[in-house]
Amino acid sequence: MLNVGDSIQVKVLKFDKEKERVSLGMKQLSEDPWEGVPERYPVGARVSGKVMSVTDYGAFIKLEDGVEGLVHISEMTWNRKIKHPSKIVEVGDSVEAEVLSIDSENRRISLGMKQIEPNPWDIVAENYPIGSIIEGKVRTLTDFGAFIGLEEGIDGLIHVSDMSWTQKINHPSEVIKKGDSVKAVVLSVDKGRERLSLGLKQLTTNPWDELANQHPAGSFITGKVVNHADFGTFVELMEGVEGLIHISEMDLEEGQSAEEAYPPGTEVKVKILNIDPEERKVSLSMNAAKEGGPAPSYASYLNSDSGGGTLGDILGESLAAAKSSEQEKVEEAEPVKEPEESPPQDVQEEEADVEAEEDVQEEEAEMEAEEVEEK
After folding, report:
1. Label partner for 362 (CA 20 to 30 A): which of 234, 244, 303, 343?
2. pTM
3. 246 vs 228, 309, 318, CA distance in Å?
């Protein structure tokens, strides 16, 4: 700006006689450019300027001599994937921006370049309505899900819990890879937080709902034994859908184990006692399927509204009820004895006269016997 030997005009700012110092200033010869900045660059105004420097956190834009504004990297584009301002602007570029705020005291102006363009999130809900099917490429994978690129500045997240109805996914890479083109269902749109939730499993029917609709509680179904546990046996009813036969509902001979009777892969006929699609649990019975009727013991225990009592209590009640039912059947089978008819009135009188005559004869005989003894 200045060279040795140049002739310049300055303004005396301060004189210190003791230290023999004189403070001079050049800018004081002209008006302070920050005077009237709020009026010349009101918040919301659109301005033009030249990029003077680029830093890790943004770019400085010259608006006029002595007045610069900062465009922070977060205000350069709606796309959050930009890691450095140099990916967008270079020194010397002419740019347009919007005035976001002014701090006259600290002589700072905050500018925004992305505000010149419409916010794509303003129309995301219109472009991607809930329930619609979209297609995009997998941009990044994280431990909790996969981000799918839909358009510039718009990514959707498929959470790991929305990748499969039946499988437990530990990492998204088990299902999809970076760069894959995938289809998904729009689950929700949050404009304020700029989030778009997608689902992969929603492209297919929930097998648990399908099982509940096709085979409700009380119906019979054939499944394949998968594995055994101390408390029962797991049976696959549909692809990825398993139910539990409690050990008390197994059709076993005395001393026989479930592993011996039904090795993995064995097909078994069972009755569905209870099904809960939300909890993904199905209770099954082989005994009920064999009998073709209800299973009062375990089924009653599972579906009891009282919330109390033990399995022994329920078995006792079932046996008592069965005994009472048998007694009723026996009573119904016994013939009812009809009361005997009374003889006619004249027959009754004749019988009474005979009885009286017999009594008189007995008395005479007793008197004769007494006379003989006296003699």
Report:
1. 343
2. 0.54
3. 10, 18, 19
